[in-house]
Write a structure and sequence with these properties.
This protein is an alpha+beta fold. Helices cover 44% and strands 15% of the residues. It has 28 helices and 27 strands. It has a 7-stranded mixed beta sheet with strand order 18-17-23-19-22-21-20. The protein has a 6-stranded antiparallel barrel with strand order 1-2-3-6-5-4. Strands 8-11-12-15-14-13 form a 6-stranded antiparallel barrel. A hairpin with an 8-residue loop joins β14 (196-203) and β15. The protein is elongated and about 130 Å long. The two termini are 40 Å apart.
Amino acid sequence: MSTAERRSSEPVGLDPRRVVQVLATAESGTGKRRFGSGYRVAADAVLTAAHVVRDASSVCLRFFTTGDQTAELTGTQVWIDPVADIAVLKIECGPDLDGLLARDVPLVRFARITGVVDCDALGFPKFKMRRGPASAGSDPPTVYRDSHHARGTTTPFSDVRQGTLELSLRAPEYDIDRDRSPWEGMSGAAVWSGGCLIGVVSEHHRADGLGSLAASRVDRWYELLPPDRIRELGELIGLPASAAQLEQLPPPQGEPWLRATAGNLASWVEKQWSAEEKRRSVHDPFPMGVFFRNATGPFDSWSNIRQAPPCSQAPSAPLALEGPLDRIVEAYRKVPSRRLVVLGEAGAGKTILALRFVLDWLCAPVPGDPVPVIFSLGSWDPATSLHDWMCSQLVRDYPDLNVPAPNGRSLADALLHGHQILPVLDGFDEIAEDWQSAALRAINATATGLLLTSRPKEYAKAVQTAGAVLRGAAGIMLDSLGLSDLATYLRRASPPSPGGDEMSTVWEPVLAELGKKSRSEGAENVAKALSTPLMVALARTVYRSAHTQQPENKPQPEDLLDTICFPTSTAVEDYLLSAFVPAAYDPPPTSSQPAGVGTAERRRRRWDAERAEEWLGYLARHLDLLGPDNQATHDLAWWELGTTMRRSSRALAVGGLAAAAFGVTTAIGNIPVDLVATSRGLEFALARGVVVGLLHGLVAGLVFGFIYWVMAGREGLKPLQVRTKLSRGAWKRRREAFRGAVVGVVVGVVSAAVLLVLDRVVVRDLGLDDGQGGGRLAALVFIAELGFGGGLVFGLTALLEAPLQSESAARPTDLLNANRRRVAFRLMLWALVIGSVVGLVEGIWHGALRGIEVGAVFGLEAAFGAGLAYGCGLTAWGQWVALARIWLPLTGRLPWRLMAFLDDAHQREVLRQAGAVYQFRHASLQDHLSIKFQRRSAEEQKGDPWNPPVPRPRQYNKGTYRKLH
């Protein structure tokens, strides 16, 4: 069972295993007992009613263990307040109650109610008195009180003057003893609603009837108790420092559409990261044993973190924030400020922690909680506000949030403004070093809760440079992997030798060396290198796939102990990074492939490891140069591929593609016309078609290339997140449609004038006039046709475009397919509109047959000439085709089937998917591949920027470790 599945099965709020029956013996010496109820709110603390344990000489705590069994421990009163009628008992050492006390107890969440809510409480009232064996096998029969789960409603509007909650419950049917309440013994039971503790049962007023109980209100405690007493309660049971920090029930409603949008987003995020977690093999064979603890360093004071009131004089005590990775949500909820910094060295598991945090948060949702969304900070330029950047990332990864909200903003912007997003800011250290202090100040300017991950040195330096800590944020540090966890994982994740068990893997010699008290230098290097989950995962891949090689070339993990080849731990890490990609692309021997291997699997194995590493190196170098001022980024987006080329080179490639599209189309379109309409023969038709095509293509290439050079700038064209849809809301876009129509008229008129000049002046002067141009009237009609048709095309395009909707998180290919469909729609629109307009005019003027012929020719030329040239020259899809699908594969820098290659790299865990973009598995892998690519380019290109690196065969065996560095 996965962590998410385990946690989803745990109760949220009331946990029957933590309910306690309290038996207090009076000090008078009579031996008289008072019965009550309580709840284990912390590992060693029980919350109950003060009047139950007041003046008690001893307190016995009775717990449920397994089945119907019970066990008793001694309780000591450590805190009591008769006015608020609450007390805290410390559980003394004793038997572990079948492992109950050994469990890590999640802290309770406290809330205040502002309206009518459902509630429940679990206690031991008098009317549940039973006679018989209290537990299996007990003899003789005893009298005992069984548990009662009381369920009902409560409201803050009753008992206002008394300041208690009135619980409306199902009444016991009989009231036999008029001198004693049937609810006696229920006092001290915790009252729950929405997974939060809202009060403690304190009294039964008989005048209210048998179906009513009174409870001490949590929010009332802040009025009755002084700040120092509140602080003491906070340290004992985790009570927030002020009433303002209590959760609100019912949760703030907000707009219904905003709640619905947040619910949809939560569903998309959960599906997205659940699939990605499976893809990253986090649970194969089980998650690594990563633990976190309180971090020391530049963090805010605990008084600010715990949001202590200003009148509090004594400093607040630290919170204990430690545990395994699957308790990260629990640790986060302990922090009243809801701001947490996660520190860890490279590869320590920060990104996996962020992923685990999101999934665990969503698997046990609490009403009113914001939706956690992972934002990779490596692509953020702090010159853009954090709010605007997060809004753009949301729209990119969840296209449905680009829809306008009822308040006029986009849904993404409305969610951020409505505090419905919990930012999980991953990779603060991946922001360019010069920008980190500015980024920290920008994050500090927000008041939202967040979780931020970073390497320790980069975070400390940013704090020092900015001169301020992250306000209200606590810090935790990820520990290195322990030897026992490392050994267990490697043995379980590696195949045993033939006929052996899990203690016979190839890692046994290494683990034996690591387990020695006095390690060798090589063992120390390996232990240090394999102290992070990243390096362990790389080592697993390198040596798990190596078993497919021939015995003489088979590397062994024990070779890592060789201090001649690997003098330092860094050398071990460099080797694992170098060997990872070849190992990831290392297929099994062809002779061992089963005959039934599917086509998809065979296609997956076609990539050559040597070429794949070079292509990945180019992509890594592309990301290094992509950010402003050549600052590295980590988001590999299809629309940005090739944009690190010189602007003039990109304009040349895009303009050339547009020229080919327009020129070839008009050349082919003119040849049959001249063959049919003139008597000059095939030679003249071919000559005129070639000349017209060259002239039209040259002009189109210059125009589209120049427009691209102006529009694209340094970053290139961005994809439009729109789709073509005829809907009722289309009329709302009439203003955009009118502006588009005006632009289309201008474009059509100018294009017609240019074509007339080329055909009637330049072509005629070359002696290739076919006599089909007509007079001035025909020229004016032609200009009017293209002007009207262009306006109609542009206007309809704007009218029929709506925000892209996918009802899920975007994948890298979604935007590409949407933009391709948009270009195809424009092609059809150009064909239908221009063909119909020209055909109608020509049919009226020269007859129906002439109109059909000319309309068909002009429609096809408009579609495959103007439409395709526009798509190739002025859209992100055209930029992608020109640069990433033609130019870069032609020069050997990328494969021809690029998207298939990227998807395959994702399947092999070389890349990871983050919404609409890919990222390298880790920044260390990206840096390594980039450096290796630069070195190879410097050696093999010899200063020629147009000469791609030439692959060289390379062997991976024991004798070539150093060549891999």
